[in-house]
């Protein structure tokens, strides 16, 4: 063992065939020209070509090297598969989007069309016929806006040939410009068939056929607390519907302008919002039947122009309005129901005091006399003369009503057959 710094070349063999004779290069070989000056080179060390061992059998195979000259595979099938997949995904997405849009009421054609005259009710807004929204949808086509010069009121169709019921005070100043407009925006001229100022009922005829009349209900069958809808054009806001309840029955009202006709109502009171312009419009029950004609509001305003809804409105009972309207259509004039006595008004006497009784009239026939105080009529409490007038006019001529009265200190009762005024 040596570190080589004092290494010496071994002696050259003298004879051929001696060990190392065939492996030592000659001194003149260019491969060994510098070997004599390299102290680290051992010219006698054995040498061999070493090849890497083959991969072990059973192991993972090495990826073959791609031949650059080999023909390449076409990408057309792959592109076609991608295109078909994209089309299928888009179609499925569009279908699902349309289904969700229809369920949400957003599909084209189901909502309001900007610039279109006809508006379709979206499926999401459709309601059951018995719901309040369903009732409103069925009644609105029969409600009209009555247009008189300088004023607007309401009314409702009661016959297919165009008869419309409204308030007398709505059309009292009507002229040749009288017209009505419908829910769909169409208009038609109208004429006055007849009017009854004392009952505040009038009938006009619209120059249009094929109309849809309302369903008239029985106003005697309603009760306090029943839900109601008021239709009309309050404050010129056409096609308006408000909701409330019947808050009182047979609320006697005295109305009319100073110096004009005094009107008496045994009215249906409601808390549905009613304002100027609602006059003549229908009050409808939960079944879609008209049970009253909106006519009067109670307000804290000092003048008619200041009047506004404060939760108190009054409607003429439909049974009374229907009877008066039928008289007007049939004869051009309404019959007024009377009891055949003159009463004292503005007096607090615990009833209606009879000032005079007509000979052979309904009251006299039933045994009533001047000075008697009627306290009840048909079971309704009578507090003063106005109550008696309003309750009598609610009934049709020929109706038989029970009357309770006081004569002096004695109470008595009678049955009175009401009659029509001959004037």
Automatic annotation (TrEMBL):
GO molecular function: serine-type endopeptidase activity
Residues that span the membrane, as ranges: 78-100
GO biological process: proteolysis
Pfam family, one: PDZ_2
Spans annotated as Disordered: 1-69
Keywords: Hydrolase, Membrane, Protease, Transmembrane, Transmembrane helix
Skewed-composition ranges (Low complexity): 17-30, 59-68
Every PDZ domain range: 328-383
InterPro entries: Chloro_Bact_Ser_Proteases, PDZ, PDZ_sf, Peptidase_S1_PA, Peptidase_S1C
Superkingdom of origin organism: Bacteria
PANTHER family from the UniProt entry: PEPTIDASE S12 (PTHR43343), PROTEASE DO-LIKE 8, CHLOROPLASTIC (PTHR43343:SF3)
Annotated protein name in UniProt: Trypsin-like peptidase domain-containing protein
Organism: Actinoplanes aureus
């Amino acid at each position: 063992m040596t570190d080589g710094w004092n290494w010496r070349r071994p002696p050259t063999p003298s004879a051929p065939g001696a060990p190392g004779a065939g492996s030592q290069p000659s001194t003149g070989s260019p491969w060994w020209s510098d070997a004599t000056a390299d102290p680290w080179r051992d010219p006698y060390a054995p040498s061999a070509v070493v090849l890497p061992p083959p991969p072990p059998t059973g192991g993972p195979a090495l990826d073959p090297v791609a031949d650059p000259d080999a023909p390449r595979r076409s990408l057309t099938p792959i592109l076609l598969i991608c295109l078909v997949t994209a089309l299928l995904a888009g179609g499925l997405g569009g279908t699902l989007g349309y289904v969700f849009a229809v369920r949400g009421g957003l599909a084209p054609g189901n909502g309001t069309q900007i610039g279109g005259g006809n508006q379709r009710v979206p499926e999401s807004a459709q309601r059951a016929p018995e719901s309040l929204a369903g009732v409103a949808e069925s009644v609105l086509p029969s409600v009209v806006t009555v247009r008189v010069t300088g004023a607007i009121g309401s009314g409702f169709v009661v016959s297919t040939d165009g008869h419309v019921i409204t308030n007398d005070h709505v059309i009292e100043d009507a002229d040749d410009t009288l017209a009505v407009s419908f829910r769909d925006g169409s208009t038609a001229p109208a004429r006055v068939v007849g009017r009854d100022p004392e009952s505040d009922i009038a009938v006009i005829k619209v120059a249009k056929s094929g109309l849809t009349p309302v369903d008239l209900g029985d106003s005697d069958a309603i009760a306090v607390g029943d839900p109601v809808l008021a239709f009309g054009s309050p404050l010129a806001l056409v096609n308006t519907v408000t909701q409330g309840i019947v808050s009182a029955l047979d609320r006697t009202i005295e109305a009319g302008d100073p110096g004009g006709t005094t009107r008496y109502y045994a009215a249906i009171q409601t808390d549905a919002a009613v304002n100027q312009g609602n006059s003549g419009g229908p009050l409808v029950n939960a079944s879609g039947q008209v049970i009253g004609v909106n006519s009067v509001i109670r307000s804290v305003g000092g003048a008619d122009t200041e009047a506004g809804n404060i939760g108190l409105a009054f409607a003429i009972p439909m049974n009374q309005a229907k009877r008066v309207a039928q008289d007007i259509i049939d004869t051009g004039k309404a019959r007024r129901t009377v009891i055949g006595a003159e009463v004292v008004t503005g007096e607090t006497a615990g009833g209606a005091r009879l000032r005079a009784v007509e000979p052979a009239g309904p009251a006299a026939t039933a045994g009533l006399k001047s000075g008697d105080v009627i306290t009840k009529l048909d079971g309704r409490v009578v507090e003063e003369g106005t109550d008696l007038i309003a309750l009598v006019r609610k009934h049709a001529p020929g109706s038989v009503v029970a009357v309770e009265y006081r004569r002096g200190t004695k109470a008595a009762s009678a049955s009175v057959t009401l009659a029509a005024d001959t004037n």
